[in-house]
Structure formats: C-alpha cells, structure tokens
Amino acid sequence: MNSPKSGNPLAGKLDAGPAPLLSVSGVSKAFGGLQALSDISLQVHAGEIFGLIGPNGAGKTTLFNAFTGLYSIDRGEIRLNGTRLHGRKPHQVLQAGLARTFQNIRLFAEMTALENVLVGRHIRTRSGVVGAVLRLPATRREEADSHERAHALLCRVGIAQHAGRLARNLPYGDQRRLEIARALATEPSLLALDEPAAGMNPAERAALRELLLQLQGDGLTLLLIEHDVKLVMGLCTRLAVLDYGVKIAEGTPDAVGCDSRVIAAYLGDEAL
Amino acid sequence: MSSVPKLNKTQPRWFVFGLLALGLALLPFLVDAGLGRSWVRLLDLALLYVILALGLNIVVGYAGLLDLGYVAFYALGAYVYAWLASPHFGLHLPFWAILPLGAALAALFGVLLGAPTLRLRGDYLAIVTLGFGEIIRIFMNNLNAPVNITNGPQGINLIDPVRLGGVSLSQPQTFFGYTFSGAHLTYYLFLLLVLAVIFISMRLENSRIGRAWVAIREDEIAAAATGINTRNLKLLAFAMGAVFGGLAGSLFASFQGFISPESFNLMESIMILCMIVLGGMGHIPGVIFGALLLTLLPEALRYTGDWQRSLFGQVVIDPADLRMLLFGVALVAVMLYRPAGLIPSARRRREFAEAKG
C-alpha cells in the first residue's frame, strides 16, 4: 500500500486515525410503533473508554442489546474490528471479542464465583463430551488452564477471597466485580458495561473507577453506559449522548457538557 | 491421576469403596435369601430406573429443561431392541450390537424433539415434550397397518434375552461351582451399566459442558451473553438424556422379553420425573436414591394386606387400593418437609434454605 502522504485519494481517510475498533453506522430498531433507536452511528477506537449517556429510556440498553446479539436491528451495521456483529447470535458476538455486563446483575446465582468465571472460559475452550468423560490429557490441560485463568481474574478484580462462595451470597459491589471478571474471561477486545456503578456507595464507586482505569491500562477498550455524570466525565475519553433513540451529541466530556441539546435533554428546554 | 495419594486420607476411602462393592456384589443373594426371587427381579428393574432417572437428570436437573416426554426415548430403545432381536422381523442381532443402535436412534430423536423446543421454557416446554411422548406411544400403538412395524397394541413378544459370549442371562448358569439365576446375572450386567452411567454423569457434571448446562438453567440470557451456544448445549442435553433413555429401553426389552405401547405411557414419564424431584434434582446420589425408592416402595406396599391381617386380624382395605394412596401421601409428605429432595445437592439445599429464611 502507498503511504498516506502519497496523494492517494484514501489519504484523507487514513489521516483521520486508525480504523475504529467498534463501528456503528445507521443502526435503527423499532418495537412496534416505538422507534427505540434511529440512525445511530458512532465509532469507538482501541484503548478508549467510551461513554454512552442519556436520560432514562433514551435507548442505551437497547443499543447494548443490539451490539451483543440479544436484539436484531432493523437497519444499519455494527462491526467489531471489521467483523460483522449485526445478525449474529450472542455467542458469536462473544467469539468476535465483545463481552458485556448487565444493568441488573445477571450472575449464575447458584454457582460459585469461580464457576461463574469458568463459564466465561467456555467460548475460549473446546473440549467436548468425549474429552470430559474420558478426561483426556488435552481436556485436563484445558481445565487446569481455565482454573488458573479464572483464579487470576478473580484476583484481578479483587475478589479472590470469594472464589468458593455462591455468587448470590457475595456483597453487591463484589457481584458487579464478578460479572466483570466473568466477561473478562471471554478475552474480549471490547468490554461493554451497562451501568456498572448503579447502586454502589461512593467507596465502591471509587474502587470501580480504579479498576476500570487499570483495565484500560492493560489495553482493553471499554464502552460504558452510566448515569453517574461525575464518574463518566472523569473517566471517559469520549462520550455519545442519546435521547429518544437519537444521538444528539458526541465528543469529549467537556464539549458534550456544554452542548445545548444535551443540557435540554437532561434539564428541559427551560433551563437554557 | 496426577495427585499423589495421601495414604492416611485415601485408605479409609478405599475401605468404604471396597465394602460398598462387596455389598453390591452380595446384594442379590441376600435379597434372594431374605425376600425371594421376585425381589431380585425387582432389583433389576430398579437399576433400570436408576439409568432412566440419571438420564432425565441431565435434561431436567442440569440443563433445567422440564421434559415430560422422556419415556419416548425409553420406548424407542425398547422397540429398536425388539425389532432387531425377535421373531417379529426374524432378526436376531447380538446384544452389544443393538445397544449402541438403540442409544443412537434415541439420541437422534432427542435432537429432533429438542430442535423445535429451543425457544420454549418451563411450562411451555413441558407441554410440548408431553405431546412428543404421547405421539411416540400412539405411533407404536398404530404402526401395525398397512405395514406391521410395531404389532400395534399386542406388542412384540419373544424378544431375545441378553446373550453375552454364549452365556444367556435367561437361564441359570454355573460359574466356579456356584449357580447364578438369570435374575442374578441380569443384576450384575445392569449394575455394570449403572456404574458406567454414574461415571459419565459425574464426569459431565464437573466439566466445561456440565457448567454450561447449569449456567443455562440458572439464567439462559446471561449464559448466551457469556458466550454459551445455548442451542447446541440444549440439544446436547436432550441427546445425552435420550442416550441413557434408549439404553434403558433396550435393556428393558431384553429383560422382559415382551414390550407393548402400554409400558410407555405418560405415567411412566411422571414417575421418572418424581424420582429426580423426590431424590434431589441435579444430585447424583439423590437421583439414584429416588429411583430405587420409587421402584421398590410401591412393591413393598403390596404387602400391606399381611400387615393388616396381623394388626386387625383381617384385611380392612384392599392392598391394591391402599398402595397408591400411601404412595401419594408419601410423595406429598416428602415435598412438604423436604422440598429440595431427600438427598439434595449442597447447592439446592442452600437455595431452599434461603428461600425459606
């Protein structure tokens, strides 16, 4: 290929930076007469913490569900590293490298913390029925490796002491951490967190913020839905704001914070 | 095994295993001496139900798919054996050749049943599987015309008994100067297969596959969003359960020598489900106990006539009537006082304890 500066017609595009990790273009989704998402486009670049904010019912979680294959979309494209995500099953989305957590924690309540993370290893392991029954060398190696990684992840999110406890018995903040560990076990390139700080006290929030920054430091890209504006403004490199299924602003936290449409969406038109 | 055995720890364990093995080996003789030959046959039947219950346990206990048509796979296994080893088609294939065929056909039907039910859960799944069970039974009942495949309600008779290396399990055989009755030999064969099924269940439970099943049971959406291919794993659960069902069916056909659609009605499915729920869903020892209890208890209750005579000097209520009444009361009592089952898994015990407190 030519270098970007050779007068190639692609040069302008290439100068815009590397290809985005997640590229969403023209995504629309309606539930009956309700247009939950209209023509949403956004790009998340590798290494970013990208925030997705908006008032209740703006379509944030719907967009997440569309990313992760839980909802099908009516129009548009979602690509991760060039791989098509729309129209794929959830496990194929995981395979491609997009993992998520849920707004209302969805752990496997009656499994231990360690088992929860081991389930996350499912997509990156292969052994089948024969391997499991005969406990073939390959299966044993794989199991040992999964256990080792799962332990390491529990340490990573700081809940190694709970490894043997049932997920349902973990303190609330630790359940959120466990969900993150389970998502990390799938070795994602993009981790989507749906309101990870919801219901947390200030100390837990600070610890979560620390953890997310560490994950970013490890080279993970994060996509964050969050209500806590302080957390989002301090943490995110860029933000997109949704209102009634429409993207009304996108940019750095400072720029978005000054946007009149954003202020109107959050505080009402009278505030202007 | 990679771990070096610690003598002081493993020695008592092996001792317990040894005792258990000895007990299981001597059991038919003890039962024969104490209760009579018919109870040895009942013991054989109980082992058959252990296989069935462990098979359904994979579907219901692990993957959480409420299957009320499980008896269909039992029927398929039995009919495959009857077709391939009876004068009905004039085929007399050896036992070991038919066993995998019956299991494989059942597995295929497990997938065929599973495929349309993938989107269904709970009650809806139960209704569809119930329908499937009935369809198979009614097919077996009516496939005698225009081509006689199943011989209809008359069933298939004169099915070959198990014959292993020239040794028939239908007649007494003498080994090392001891004479073993057919029922005794059948007991050992069934015991061997039960042990194999227990082994497979245990290995699956503690594997990547078993964890994925439990994850689906706990929260199907979260399981999918954690990268589990829920479609394939649910089909796998149906197929694995069906394999054990088909295996038990083939054994049943060879054991009884006669099968008819009557043996595979809805009540049978419900009974197998009861064994699991009563014993302790998803917990292998509980399921085994439930299967043994629900096979042997109704038989033991036949003797209430004798008890009544010794108590009141006469039979007050016909034992046949009293039997099912007592059985029903026992079921209700267990579910009231031990809702997690008689021998629940640690997991379910906690679940119910917390729901209460």
Mind sketching the topology for me?
The complex is a heterodimer of chains A (272) and B (357).
Chain A: H1 11-15, E1 22-31, E2 34-44, E3 49-53, H2 60-67, E4 75-80, E5 83-84, H3 90-96, E6 98-100, H4 113-120, H5 129-134, H6 137-156, H7 172-184, E7 190-194, H8 202-217, E8 221-225, H9 229-235, E9 238-243, E10 246-251, H10 253-258, H11 260-267
Parallel strand pairs in A: 3-8, 3-9, 6-7, 7-8
Antiparallel strand pairs in A: 1-2, 1-4, 4-5, 9-10
Helix pairs in contact in A: 4-6, 4-7, 6-7
Chain B: H1 7-35, H2 37-62, H3 71-84, E1 85-86, E2 91-92, H4 95-114, H5 122-142, E3 163-164, E4 167-168, E5 173-175, E6 178-180, H6 182-205, H7 208-218, H8 220-225, H9 230-256, H10 266-279, H11 284-300, H12 304-312, H13 319-337, H14 346-356
Antiparallel strand pairs in B: 1-2, 3-4, 5-6
Helix pairs in contact in B: 1-2, 1-6, 2-6, 2-9, 2-10, 2-11, 3-4, 3-5, 3-9, 4-9, 7-9, 10-11
Please give a structural write-up.
The complex is a heterodimer of chains A (272) and B (357). Chain A has 2 domains: 20-97 and 188-267, Rossmann fold; 110-186, no CATH class. Chain A has 11 helices and 10 strands. By secondary structure, chain A is of the alpha/beta class. In chain A, the strands form 2 sheets. Chain A has a 6-stranded mixed β-sheet, with helices on both faces. In chain A, helix 4 (113-120) packs parallel to helix 7. Chain B is mostly helical. Chain B has a domain at 34-265. Helices cover 69% and strands 4% of the residues of chain B. In chain B, helix 4 runs antiparallel to helix 9. The longest helix of chain B is centred in the N-terminal third of the chain and has 29 residues, at 7-35. The model of chain B is unreliable at 1-7 (pLDDT under 50). Chains A and B meet through helix 3, helix 4, helix 5 and helix 6 of A and helix 6, helix 7, helix 8, helix 9 and helix 14 of B.
